[in-house]
Amino acid sequence: MSAAVSNTSTNDLCGSDEIRRRQWILNSIPLMTKSQAQNLWKNTLTDVEKETPDIVYKLLQYNYVHDVFCPNPWSSRSYFDEAIDDLPTKFINDAQAFIAFTKQDDFAKRHEERTTFDIRSTLNLPVQFKDNFDVMKAVCLISPFALANASDRLKDDEDLVFTALFNSTCLSGEMKLLLHASNRLQKSKEFIRKCFLEISARCHQRDYKTEDFAWISRYCSGFPADTRGIGFDRSNDHGKRFSIQDMSEFLRILPPKEAADAAKFYPREFFNNEDAIMELVNRLGRHAIGDLYSYKHYYFERSSALQMVRALVDTEMLKQIDEKYKKVEQVFEEDIIKQISSKEITSFDDMPEKWRLNQNVLSKTVECGWFDAGLESVLSFTAAVKASASIKESADHKKRFWETRNRIYGGKLSLFELWFEPYSEEGSKLYSILPEQLQMDEEVAIALLESGCDEIDLMLENIPSLYKSKRALNLMLYISDHAKSRCCFGDPAADYFIEQSPFRADKELMILACNLNDMNLELVDKTLFEDRDFVERVIHPQTITESSEEFQMGNLDLVETAIKNPYIDQGSCYIDQGSWGEDISPKVWTIRSIVMTWLAKAESSYYGLEMIYNIDKANPFLNDKEVVSLSVNARPSDLQYAHTGLRSDTSFILKCVREAERILQYAPKGMCRDDGIAIAAISQDDGNIVDCFNILNSKVDEEYLSTLLHRVKSKLKLHDMFIKVFLMGASRDDQHTIHPSLRSPLPMLNQGAETSIKLKKMIAEYAGVPIGQSYIEMKGTVAALERFRF
């Protein structure tokens, strides 16, 4: 952008055409970078324009990108805000200003907090808008959970609540959304009936799935769904909102298939009511009856009404259902504990395998003196630990677990869950409850590590010899890696137990350690970085930067592989320009394949010409068209690092402009006034107008764009004339009906399809008629400039 001038001179320059000036501003704002928008507000807009609604609304809509005002202009500015000014006072109570603010991209993501168990709005909604229907509707269309911030009057507005419910980005949360509505709406049968019908209509339009009846069906029964969507969380009982008769009435308004889908999520009380069940079943086909019975009988197997339904199910389908839900005899924790207390079970061999590492069961065995007998009991326990550690997760285990979890444990995390998830989020804490004698036993500790026990610190404190056990260290690495995967903040640290072990030069162990946690590369013995097998099997940027120049030049394929490694782009590590610029031999950057691989990493700005330029400004690849083109296509700013000769090449700049976005600002000054380049750039991206021209502060830019538009329109008129006069004249086949003296020579060009096309193209090029890409670019340029009111 040109340097800004004072508000007075700007006004004098453009005051003759205020409408055109304003249109330029409004079209420019969405295309501006952060610095351009802030410069516009600080140095270009007049005091009057800063109070103009259209301009301020547009700035609010893109404020998240531009940081002209603070992230929420209606709240106080924080220390970390990059805002340059406060929202003008006149807009504080302007509802349309706040509605413009809600139109920002990703508005919902920035003003909603999502956890495993809940979604809530974090929007600090100004008090003056909580009772404004237009504002609340605009907010709820984007961030439905903001309904909680509405006034009591609006929470009783059916249209607003309906808008929030059916614009949710997370269907599982709609029940909680409805809980924000007024008590009248929550208990309104008419409103709930409307919700059922809306879901049914959207199922037909394929916007929703049949499972989306779950929230409304469960709402009717008074129990929110649990976080897994299985059963009901009865710890949050809101009381039964509607009777069984009401629930039946809601099903009557739905087509049979949707009625069955909605009924699947009704509670036990509904399926114990024979009249309600038979009314529903009488509307269903035999397959739908079987499907409903199959879905519900496992949970409510003692329902008398469902036993009536069973009689209506096809025999073959009934066999499949019974086989699918065949009961497996279950032994529960409390039964095991009772049998240990009563001495019905006296050893691990008598205990079902899955309960041998249950924390409560194990505590009971200690309490009952199982470990007072000495070594024999210790060995028995070790065997039990090893046996339990061998249990493998299976699909059947998973299925039974999720189906019975809520029924048995009321939805709370328990050791029943830990059995199916050896490396669960809670980990295993069995080691610390063992008697001191067992805590000092290395074999017991290793067996517990195999089962997923994550009390590594305590084990190493009690048994220092574990540092010297490769088997123990291998297990610790896997457990430590799982623990880091659960960490939601901070960078992962190196595994300290590796540093104190004698195996830092052990290739196999260190390969495992580094592949699980790249921070362990800090602990690797330096000799391994000269071992091709180690570097090849780890493949991480640091394995290359730590190696010698001789190794790098002798193993260029590994350097290239390290750059290509997709793990690098997952956010946890990246190739740092500084380390690669300092630690990679300059000779490596003279290898074409290495440079091309480096530049092809378009996912990050780290991979570009800047580093190569900083290493060696005379690098031949900075003057290589193929190399520079590859780089600028991914990172337009890399054009500034190309060789001066290449940047002065008009044809090369034209090629770059046609392939890369908003690159013209990085070309040499003056290139933007080359008609061919300007036309290609403007047609490709309106942003090039904002980047390189500023009629608000430069009369020269205004005059150039105006004359450019005039020249382009003249060319397009020539194109139209060429089509309507020349080509139409050449295609005439009625010459024999015209007097010889009046006949046109143009039909003589028709000498066969191929020849005719070549001749017409040659004439068009000779006459300067825009055709092909040139014509398309000119049309785009006219459209873009006219949007800016030229």
What keywords describe this structure?
2 strands; 1% strand; two-stranded antiparallel sheet; 790 residues; mainly alpha; extended
Mind explaining what this structure looks like?
- The chain is mostly helical.
- A two-stranded antiparallel ribbon has the order 1-2.
- Strand 1 and strand 2 form a beta hairpin.
- Helix 4 packs parallel to helix 6 and helix 18 runs parallel beside helix 20.
- The longest helix has 32 residues.
- The protein is extended.
- It starts with 6 loop residues before the first helix and ends with a helix.
- 33% of the residues are buried.
Summarize the model shown.
The protein has 790 residues and is mainly alpha-helical.
Strand content: under 5%
Query: Biggest sheet, open or closed, and with what strands and sense?
Result: 2 strands, antiparallel
Number of strands: 2
Computed over alpha carbons, the radius of gyration is 37 Å
The pLDDT mean sits at 75
Helix fraction, binned, reads 40-55%
Uncertain parts: 1-15, 224-239, 326-330, 390-427, 485-491, 567-574
Distance between the termini: 19 Å
Strand arrangement across the biggest beta sheet: 1-2
